[in-house]
Amino acid sequence: MKALVIGAGIGGVSAAAALKQQGIECEIFEAVKAIKPVGAAISVWSNGVKCMNHLGMGSIMDRLGGPMHYVAYKDGINNSLMTQFSLSPLVEAVGERPCPVSRADLQEQMIDWWGKDSIQFGKRLESLEQNANGVTAYFTDGTSAHGDFVIAADGTHSKARKHVLGHDVERRYAGYVNWNGLVDVSDDIAPPNQWTMFVGEGKRVSVMPIANNRFYFFFDVPLPLGLDEDRTTVKQDLTGYFEGWASPVQTLIQAINPDTTNRIEIHDIEPFDQLVKGRIALLGDSAHSTTPDIGQGGCSALEDAVVLGQCFAKIKDIEAALKEYEAARRFRVKDLVLKARKRCDVTHGKDMSETLAWYDELKVESGEGIIDGLKKTILGGPLA
What we know:
With about 375 residues, the chain is an alpha/beta fold. Helix content is about 40%, strand content about 25%. The protein has a single domain (about 1-170, about 270-380), classed as FAD/NAD(P)-binding domain (3-Layer(bba) Sandwich). The chain has helices at about 10-20, 45-55, 60-65, 90-95, 105-115, 160-165, 235-240, 245-255, 285-290, 295-315, 320-345, 350-365, 370-380, and strands spanning about 1-5, 25-30, 40-45, 70-75, 80-85, 100, 120, 125-130, 135-140, 145, 150, 170-185, 195-200, 205-210, 215-220, 260-270, 275, 280. A hairpin with a 4-residue loop joins strand 9 and strand 10. It is globular, with a radius of gyration of 21 Å. InterPro entries: FAD-bd, FAD-dep_Monooxygenase_BioMet, FAD/NAD-bd_sf, HpxO.
């Protein structure tokens, strides 16, 4: 039995790893000639770390995971502490720590773990054709490949999605722009073992520790779509958007490297129920493109891969196994997309009265409420 995996990102490599555990041969095809991750880092919460362990890649998380032991929310304007708490109760409750990691390092090490020479790069999918004998993938370079089934992990702009749904879907602008990158850890910005968030005016600034004494940072600002801004104006833009904010935020702005800072207009896709058609299955962002507001985008792709492997472990018929995968995942991933959307709206001032009420809640939050929410999301995964 042979699977064609379209995409060598987190979802694609993890899917191949899960299928390989079941004795299924996999060929991975990646559109780009060299992986260039969108985003500087990624929050791999405990459910995602458990999936990496299950797939045999837990040592990658051990190497790359930052020392995130505490969480704090601060008023972005006056720098006053709103709430601060330890993540130890969460780790004890779910049995694994969260690991914020460099996205580039994670993808590179996952590819190295699989075997870079075993991945075909520069293979951009053009179309898929399936029949009773399997699926043929056609690529824009004129080549093709045939397998018994296809796992399409080709991202939010998925070419394979239309072959499953029968129609194109539009991405939905979430209403805010995100800048992100990496800086050296500095006590002038935040403690080196804490995820620190500065909030105010429907905006958000965050620093999260990753390995090698670095902070992953991001800035969120509600803005119209399509503004003429790029890396050349990043410090000027952020200085304007965060004028009057506290000194740690100003220090962070001055510390960033414009050449390695990403500016992303955040989108998601309306959840849909069909993840499979015959011998073609969607996985990761192709199946459930979400905003990053609850940190579950990469985690849900890892969960997809684990469930895919579990389905083939108990069902040997390809189409039946893929339908079982769809049944096991479609409600979970829809829930995560909608949870992220709801959190996005509150965080970014869609209704400012709700956002201000959230700020007030943070000032009396002991940490138990936030940890309870994280715990429910994590334990909803396949390896609870």
